Amino acid sequence: MAGNKPLLDGECIRLRRAALGWSQGDLAEATRRVDPKQMGLAVRTIWDAENRRPVTRRTQLLIARALQIEPEALQRPAKPTVVSASTREPIKRSSSAPIGSRQGPSGITGLNPVLAAAVTLVVVAGISTALWLRYQPAATSPVSDGQRPIAQLDDAIWTINGSPARAALANLCIPRATIVQPTLSFSRTLGLGLTGINGTYEQAGVQSVKAFRPPFTVAATVMATTITAGVFQLLITNNDGGRGVVVDGAQGGNGVFTGLFYRSPDGPGRHWELRGRLSGPRAPALSVWYRLIVSVDASGKATVGAGPEGAELRRGSLPVGTGPFYVVLSQGSGAHGPGPNQAYWRTITISRGNAVAALPTWQLGRHGLQNVTAFAN
Fold first, then answer.
1. Can you tell me whether residue 44 is helix, strand or coil?
2. Are residues 33 and 88 in the same domain?
3. Number of helices (H) and strands (E), helices first, in the chain?
């Protein structure tokens, strides 16, 4: 009976789907990948769920699994609350005002329609999700100096080859790596492009300006488009590079350093040794989104995970200490190379408790994204 079927929160589904850059068809395909029977859902069923039509419990479970959120978050809609990064207090927003518009003191400020992306923290049924909502500039949007707005690294949140990053990255190789200048690019659909490693024993990366104290979880989605060495690395490090962990995605000269794996050091100036594997000896597939996670609890134990987006992540754990830790997005090479490497980082979030904040990587023109590193200390 329809009365016994759940009515899902269509807005929650649409916003989370938009955060992943998915269409309804993409979400339907994602449900097939997480369905043990590999049947998935039809696009029409996704439409029904988003428009509060009665659906089955199976539909609810598959959509939640594909979106990587709790099933109950879809069934108990709650009025969204936007959290201010500067005050950490909820801000009221008129329901008629579009997310990302200028609203003055009572709403989100500092965002502009020319932004390629806007970041909002939405709390739904007690589950917090960092959402990336992408906007195309309107035809009448102002531009800088008669040209298209210029995208640049959001230097309120990130710096290139910061001191902690250099200390850590140099010891990812034996002999010590040469720190080189990365080449950055910015894509509305793919995110931050990182390349520049084109030789042996080279490392480069962007590091968070602020450090974070545990407990926290850093999660990222990344895709390799060209790979000959360590094409993507999600790393946390303390100030001297002697404590931390890195999750690698690489094509190495042998099976040991090919695939997804994790490494950590035993102290300042020490080599970051291999600690465990998160995949077989196969290089990350090109043009496939991967999800990487580094979670550190209050005791200093880290849990890492990696795998294709939508699939169950393989995990490992190790002690790393209590930090504080900087977040680094990087790439590098050991003896294997030279050759081009390019990866795109689509989303980076950091969570603490039930609150999740996005770490935007870039800004457009003079209108920067909100700094939502609310948990930095």
1. helix
2. no
3. 6, 22
How many domains does the chain divide into?
A: 3
Q: Which letter, b or e, does each residue of 245-266 get, where b requires 16 or more Cβ atoms within 10 Å of its Cβ? A: bbbbbbbbeeeebbbbbbbbbe
Residues 264 and 343 occupy one common structural domain? yes
For the stretch 270-287, pLDDT in tens is 999 999 999 999 999 999
299: confidence class by pLDDT, cuts 50, 70, 90: very high
> Quick one: which of 137, 157, 180 has its CA closest to 362?
157
Closest CA to 305 of 276, 325, 265: 276
Q: How far apart are CA 342 and CA 236, in angstroms?
A: 21
pLDDT for residue 366: 40
In terms of phi and psi (left: phi > 0; alpha: psi -120 to 50; beta: otherwise), the region of 40 is left
Residue 84 vs residues 59, 128, 345: alpha-carbon distances, Å: 34, 14, 24
Q: Is residue 52 part of a domain?
A: yes
Phi, psi (deg, nearest 5) at residue 128: -95, 135
- Is there a single domain that holds both residue 236 and residue 357? yes
125 vs 122: CA distance, rounded Å? 10
Asked whether residue 159 is assigned to any structural domain, the reply reads yes
**Band of the pLDDT at 364, cuts 50, 70, 90?**
low
* Residue ranges with strand state E in 251-299: 259-264, 273-277, 289-296
Cα Rg of the chain, angstroms: 21
